[in-house]
Amino acid sequence: MSIQEATPDHRAAEQAIEVAGENLEFRQLVIEDAAPTGAQITHAAGFTAAQQATVLHFLPDGELEEIRPNQNVDLGKGRQFVVVETDRLYILTINGERFEWPSRLISGAVLRKLGKVAPEDELLLDCVDQPDRLIGPRDLVDLGKGGIEAFISRKPTWKLNVQGVLLTLHQPTIVVRQALLDAGFNPDQGWQIFLIVKNQPKRAVTLTDTVDLRTPGIEKLRLTPTGVNNGEPAPKPRRDFDVLEVDEKYLDALGCFWETVVDSGHRWLLIHNYRVPAGYDQQMVTLALLIPTTYPGAEIDMFYTNPKLTLRSGQPIDRTQVSAIICGTPFNGWSRHRSGAAPWKPAIDNVVTHLALVESAIAKEVGQ
């Protein structure tokens, strides 16, 4: 009796894979094999055997594994492939060291392995007449565009603007006190310090707070000298009505003198000495918000300033023709409203979120 070795049967339901060519754009193909060979993949991609295309298995970690024509592929490891026709070696350099690569395409992960780039370092494509391009592990680079592609690695850097002084840091976090020292400011002079993050209200911070520059949208630390008086007691703020607890905590953290007043039946939140960005004729204003009696069920709309904000450029500010008298003082209103795509939501919106809209609107007029 003879014993015959069983031949593996890869037949299965149709399998979807993704294939990219020289344009690096992946397209979905269907192949009728659960473990296709390199030859089957090149055929599905539209290549003939005579073209001798190279098949590279593009793995989730960015590795490119070459697949031989008769080699079966484990689709469980990944379903993306790069198929290119090649008949030459491509030259590249990494930190000045020369390498040869057998395919027109190479990934960031392979470049890191070739050049022994430290995991914490950035990898960049050295570009001419434009900023260097940051290469991620799964980014694919076309080596066939002519010339020798040069890659460099470097320690990552982060930038922080401290009251107009731009710091370049080699660590993603910094204590506020150290940031002031590095920028040449005396941290013990007495400052109100605000962290400015794009599309968020400014946030008061202390000298012992840590700024994490990996946080998206961080723009700068703004310094304001602490006010000095002749020893007279500070005026007691009016509290004609209450705001939400979250509003009160935020307003106290701003470092501005604020109060709530009822005038002619209208409820107003007044924020005194509210600083505005450079580009206006004014440095500080009193900011007024009209608070509905059913707030937060009803939304806060628009905002008002005294004095009226005017641009140094002399250009008019659109939709600022509204006026109001609050406790005998004239205020100028800005017609800025929420869009239908981002309506007021009583469960999450409040004075804090409306102040983000205010700050964004004021900054937008001066290109910030």
TrEMBL record:
InterPro entries: Multi-ubiquitin_dom (IPR027802), UBQ-conjugat_E2_E (IPR025701). It holds the Pfam family Multi_ubiq. Signal peptide: none annotated. Residues 24-87, 92-155 form the Multi-ubiquitin domain. This is Multi-ubiquitin domain-containing protein. It comes from Bradyrhizobium cajani.
